[in-house]
Amino acid sequence: MSEVVRLERHDGIAIVTVDSPPVNALGAAVRRGILECAQTAVADPAVKAIVLACAGRTFIAGADITEFGKPTQPPALAEVVAALENSPKPTVAAIHGTALGGGLEVALGCHFRVAVKDARLGLPEVKLGLLPGAGGTQRLPRAVGPELAVKMIVGGEPVGATEALKQGLIDAIVEGPASGGEAFACRVLAERRPLRRLRDDDSRLMAAKANRSIFTDAVAAVTKRARGLEAPFAAAEAVGLSLDTPFDEALKQERELFLKLMNGDQSKAQRYAFFAEREAARVAGVPEGTKPRKVERVAIIGAGTMGGGIAMSFANAGIPVTLIEMGDESLKRGLGVMRKNFEATAARGGIAADEPARRMGLVTGVVGLEHVKDADLVIEAVFETMAVKKEVFATLDKFARSGAVLASNTSYLNINEIASVTKRPQDVLGMHFFSPANVMKLCEIVRGAKTAPDVLVTAVAVARRIAKVPVVVGVCDGFVGNRMLAARSRQADKLLFEGALPRQVDAVATRFGMPMGPFAMDDLAGLDIGWRSRRDRGVKSEIADALCEAGRFGQKTGKGYYKYEGGSRAPLPDPDVETLIVDACARLGLRRREIGDNEILERLVYPTVNEGARILEEGIAARPGDIDVVWLYGYGWPIYRGGPMYYADQVGLRHIADRLSYYAEATNDPSLEPAPLLKRLAAEGRTFASPAAGRKSTQTLAT
Ligand code: 3HC
Ligand code: NAI
């Protein structure tokens, strides 16, 4: 008997239970276990029906991703699915938690599926750069119709049990999975229900077979936003086979498409990102078993752009929030923006119509810092000025309850200095959310010199509870993300002085896969912020300053590096800006030259990587993967390129170091000299991912 799959018999019903924590993934032992138990049950004359269920927190969450890229151990998943489908006795999948990927494919091989109310079912392979490789692209369309199937497979989002029942993906909603599955199997036997083998049931395909545009329209809708990705298109192609290719031949072609994707660069990068994200949640350098503090009530100070968005994220997760402002006017404005945002989401169908009111009901708006007194976690999101932050934290120290975690959302300021005005620096840290905070998933957790381990672990746990992706970073100007972004911005600006135009630079960035280029991003953030900061520091930037002096602050004024017409956010190249750039260069006596796209790409990406190398060496980030996660979730780095450090490893560090040295000399810019870590790894022919990679330590983070 298998260690991870067991077989029990209850009055003629065989219960096959997969018990392979944490998520019952379909590793070789599980596949073998299910197959053997199913064969034993089929051969046993006392068994009349077979129920497949799982122990632990979830039904099978998919193929075992750690096995990908290694030689396949028998039995193949398709064989397991076929055994359940071909069984002469009824097979019932009893689902709780999530039935995902290969897990749902196994369930689709069963003749019937039942699920508990809060179960979710989906084929999310596309998020790993793959498509369902064990019949999912053929059986799901036969279960729910090709339009919904292509939406689920190309979009990768699971559906809940209620929707699954409505669409015919499951046959019933039950109370307990195994007991419900058993009762359902008894009913199937009593009613002598015919076995439904999806492979033989084309009824849901008929409409789209007769009118192919039903399917092609659905494909067009779901692939609209898949720019640069291979898997969504391959997945749509595979689902399309269900309409015109015999089942077994379609399975063969599905397998070929799956293997092609699995061995391709995009899926490798996406699988890397999956594990990097989970690794990032493991905090380096805290004692094993450190427990998070309890967080039931949160206070947020400042109801501006960030405070409001952060409050929405907590309300989305059902956590009550006290939102604190300086005065009634700003409070009213902040709450109004939040309500409008929730209502816009409801109007788009993103949440139910009664959700805006329910979520706003979790937010209590008040004036005065004394209201932090009941909060387990306080997040400060006031103006980005050290004096203001210090005043707020000194006051917090008076009112916050002992043991409360005190976090600042500062983008650049020194957490240690902020902590120093309190009598409890061990409870202080940064929680740096990204704008718009209710949408962006990244949260940089900034560890101060005195931050206690359980405070760090609490912030990581809270971030995950509100569906953010936490990455722990050390203290420095701009932390990981904004510090690397500054290195990129410096080069983007310099390129304008050397001969490039904003549209050319941005086009290179978006072709690479970034959601927007550096100049469109500046326009979105507002050019006046940098202008004010340069004036305070006595720094000049001829082109950016001239834009601001002309009242061009970016999207908010309808003009910046681009122009924006009729309230649209689409950047339009503006001849006035191009003249302004050329004039500024002439004033400075600079000769402009033609700059090729390849140079632009290298000058945007390699300095970003170079700064990442410094960050790693200084211990501001513990692992290269942490830096990649920051860029994937904070800046929209294309997931199929894994993140800047992963990308650099694929390009080759020697090449990158050589090119940086070349640009340092050619553009007379010492900041482009390769960082010592990059130089060393390049000379040794190693990568950032090589074990320890010559870094000082991965166990301690700089603070
Ligand atoms: N294979 C191997 N390990 C997996 C895994 C999988 N499919 N899914 C999750 N894990 C691991 C995680 O790496 C993590 O390990 P760790 O504790 O060592 O870091 C652990 O299980 C728990 O995962 P999470 O931290 O993500 O736990 P959550 O409770 O937050 O989420 C989940 C659970 C929703 C199942 C989530 O893990 C998930 O989305 N998993 C991936 C599901 C997926 O993509 N399935 C398709 C796989 S491809 C496939 O099936 C191909 C087939 O068509 C042939
Ligand atoms: P904002 O100006 O939109 O909001 C700040 C709010 O704080 C205002 O509503 C103000 O009335 C309130 N406030 C000021 N002092 C207060 C006090 N003593 N008590 C209560 N409320 C007070 O600013 P924004 O953009 O929300 O930024 C807030 C913080 O978040 C800053 O530290 C900023 O650097 C950081 N941040 C900003 C991002 C952005 O893109 N806007 C991104 C990430 C972080």
From TrEMBL:
Q: Where is this region: Disordered?
A: 688-703
- What positions does the domain 3-hydroxyacyl-CoA dehydrogenase NAD binding occupy? 298-474
Record's keyword annotation contains Cell membrane: no
Catalytic activity as recorded in UniProt = a (3S)-3-hydroxyacyl-CoA + NAD(+) = a 3-oxoacyl-CoA + NADH + H(+)
Q: Which family does it belong to?
A: Belongs to the enoyl-CoA hydratase/isomerase family. In the N-terminal section; belongs to the enoyl-CoA hydratase/isomerase family.
Q: Quaternary form?
A: Monomer.
This one is known as 3-hydroxyacyl-CoA dehydrogenase / short chain enoyl-CoA hydratase
Q: Tell me the organism.
A: Nitrobacter hamburgensis (strain DSM 10229 / NCIMB 13809 / X14)
